Here is the input.
Amino acid sequence: MSLDAIHEDIARYYTRKIESHGPTPQGVDWASEPTQALRFVQLLKVCDLSSPLSLNDIGCGYGALRGFLDQRFAGRPVDYLGTDLSEAMVSQARALWSDRRDARFECGPDIPRVADYCVASGIFNVKLHHIDPDWDSFVAATLKAMRAASRRGFAVNFLFPLEPGMRGAPELYRPAPRQWQSHCESALDAKVQVIAGYGMREYTLLATTAAAAD
Here is the structure.
């Protein structure tokens, strides 16, 4: 399965979500606003928000993270760019944030600029009908792009593997934390911290680059 085909499947899936539920957490396949916000809290731990920064939000949906930044970090300058595979998502985001000069949105798999940080919330969780090796290729390609577009660091989250005897939806992707932690450290030259224990069966990887340590 080619990456282009996977991207097209993802775009179709999330286009249906936003068309059914509008610009809400359910429109990006999250259960509620509190759990959506809790994920944002973990992802933003990679960022130094004590000074102005630029941020790429990969799989941005309707731009909920832009709103969260306004609520939680009001007055702290963030030059925000959201990208998404779904044109419907990007259209919603542009409509919601049309009055903001510090927020823009682009459609497609490419990340059109290098920023201080890149984050991605939940974009790897739903693998649809794709087999794990094909989805692994998609994850690796996305992480490589995020690393290339990040001066200081990037952050992503994943679902935890199920415990023995537990049953789960087959379309969900549940890699062990070490798989992508090791990949980011060895293949992408990043220092990685695993964040877990925040009330959901998932974890967040915070990856910092050499530039962030200088």
Q: What stands out?
A: The first strand starts at residue 53 and ends at 58.
